[in-house]
Amino acid sequence: MLNKIPNSGTVVITSNQTSELLAHFKVINNDKVTLAILDRVNLMTPENIHVNAFMYEPIIDMPVYHLINLYKKVKQLM
Fold it and tell me: Which domain holds residue 18?
């Protein structure tokens, strides 16, 4: 998202980086499909996610395939 925001070097974000970037991104992009995918990213991958070598622990319980499918959709946006 950061690369798509004009003058992103002037954007000041002190907390909740993903939410803040998404808010700035929504101002310049109105593609409903892209925004829906990014809203899911914001929901499913909170800032305090815990990932280590042997497990992924989301704040909410969800099967890992949801995260894998979301990752694939985000890669297609690039």
Answer: 2-77
